[in-house]
Amino acid sequence: MSARPIATRPAVDGEPDEQSVQPDRLYQKLARKLFDELASGKFKVGDRLPAERELAAEYGVSRPAVREAIISLEVQGLIEVRIGSGAYVMRLPGDRDQPGFGVSAFELTEARLLVEGEAAGLAATFITDEELAELDELVRQIEDENRRPGVSETADRAFHMAIAAASRNAAVVHMVAELWRLRSEAPECALLHAKARTANVRPVVEEHLAIVEALRAHDPARARLAMRAHLGQVIEHLLFATEEEALATARLAIASTRARYARSLAL
Fold first, then answer.
1. What digits encode the pLDDT tens for the residues 178-204?
2. What is the DSSP letter of 205?
3. pLDDT at residue 108 is higher than 60
4. Cβ contacts of residue 132 below 8 Å, gap of 6+?
5. pLDDT band at 81 (very low <50, low <70, confident <90, very high)
6. Residue 39, Cα to own-chain centre: how many angstroms?
7. Which of 83, 125, 216, 256 gives a 20 to 30 Å CA spacing to 24?
8. CB hemisphere CA count around 85 (13 angstroms)
9. Could you tell me if 158 and 140 are in contact, meaning their C-beta atoms sit under 8 angstroms apart?
10. How far lies 163's CA from each of 9, 81, 128, 248, in Å?
């Protein structure tokens, strides 16, 4: 089956052309297309949507783009993703429904990679022995929290905020705090991180230790790289948390999104 091109929804009379405001990302175009198909009656409540790989092939997009599109519809309560089973229609769009998009978890983590990477580079210059001792303690708390049932992110957030504070830049502190707020409050972000917790994805102690050691060496380039490597792995974990299949096949489907965020790592 040849891929069907995805077109952006045209502007209605009196509405600004959305391309002139902000061009849709590919997953948003796909979400609009799936929304229209739900509204047209192509699927009924209870139907299972085509598998991720089938949608990717039909519309000529990557599977990560399919996942982001599905998550945006799941946030609106239109579909439900059942791990290991697929995406099912929960309700059809009503007259007042419109496809809407907030900040996706992948976009948020890309922004964190850029901002927190530079925060770590700054912190490497200014960080004190007392602040390093605080980070050592927070890593121990992360390790302790990882042993407990459920997932707590208190120590993880405190770790990243402590590095932001060590940058000695109030604007950086504000930006990092806002990114962490969005992580828990933006619907798409909250949903995907909840899925990651369900998949038992937890903060990786070794990645945090590598950041601390780079800061202890007062090496800005190394600290920046360690933070970016850590957040690059967060993206990998989020991709795994949205997979419908086993880990053995999960790695085969993420080349497009990995390439996008690899470009951010190289900046």
1. 999 999 888 888 888 887 777 778 899
2. H
3. yes
4. 212, 215, 216
5. confident
6. 27
7. 83
8. 11
9. no
10. 42, 36, 11, 35
